[in-house]
Cyclophilin-like domain-containing protein
Amino acid sequence: MKLRLEVGNSRITASVIDSGTARDFLSLLPLQLRMGDLHRREKCAHLPRPLSESGTLTKNYEVGDLAYRLPEGDIAVFYRHDGQTVPTGLITIAKANSHLKALSAEGPVDVTIDLAK
């Protein structure tokens, strides 16, 4: 299954990882989020409600990961790697591999997330 993220005129496609967290995230779609910048490596936003934490918890991420941030309950999309880990932990929901440049714009961006058709 694939997700489509729209950032301005750019479209990003991401492959969903099968987990309880990912399935719970899918139940929220479509989402329109104002995503702020965090550490100049990720865009993140609050979700309307907490997600299941039944996915694999990690402190590592890769560029293109769409992940659930714990304990904040935010969704994050990583557009750059700064060599650091995320001390509080992440559950990866999906992986994108291209068109991430739109996320690297300074400041907040409006993002629509839905299932890819």
The CA atoms of residues 40 and 80 lie 7 Å apart.
